[in-house]
Description:
By secondary structure, the chain is an alpha+beta fold. The protein contains six helices and four strands; from the N terminus they run αααααββαββ. It has helices at residues 19-43, 46-63, 67-94, 100-136, 139-144, 182-190; strands spanning 150-160, 163-171, 196-203, 206-212. A hairpin with a 2-residue loop joins β1 (150-160) and β2 (163-171). α2 (46-63) runs parallel beside α4 (100-136) and α3 (67-94) packs antiparallel against α4 (100-136). The longest helix is centred in the middle third of the chain and has 37 residues, at 100-136. The relative contact order is 0.08.
Amino acid sequence: xxxxxxxxxxxxxxxxxxxxxxxxxxxxxxxxxxxxxxxxxxxxxxxxxxxxxxxxxxxxxxxxxxxxxxxxxxxxxxxxxxxxxxxxxxxxxxxxxxxxxxxxxxxxxxxxxxxxxxxxxxxxxxxxxxxxxxxxxxxxxxxxxxxxxxxxxxxxxxxxxxxxxxxxxxxxxxxxxxxxxxxxxxxxxxxxxxxxxxxxxxxxxxxxxxxxxxxxx
Length: 217
């Protein structure tokens, strides 16, 4: 005998609606509907993550000019960036029909743009930023050298032996080091026969000068 009795006209009676079953079905349907939204929302953070990673990893290489850093840049950093870029391209291709592809492509563009921008902008502003930080805690040193031409500090060096550049923070009370004849006059005062290949004014009477394979001290 069947579990449900049929009516006289042969139709089965309609079972009473179970509210718990309806609630469970509704939860299942809404959970499936919400899943893609959660994934897309998560990937919206991907450009921000790649932006932070690009700047924080590129900055040390853009800041430091040492030969060892250059080797790490060529053999480790650049190949790693290339691999990540290829991975993002493949991921975007796999997700090309999904809303997630847009976030992936944006992340790739942001990463490459910020990495290249860091290598361009940081070397231009590095000396100014470093001098500002140094000067805030070395007022006594600036007062000590304020009245004479002299080398205040070994600033930076880069290159290989025999092909090395040396940069120095120097004082020039006359504030004419970048003018015609100013560099040669300053070199005579400090007792050096080196040639200054580059100079940058930090503030009145203080410069960064660079020599090539000829240390000032």
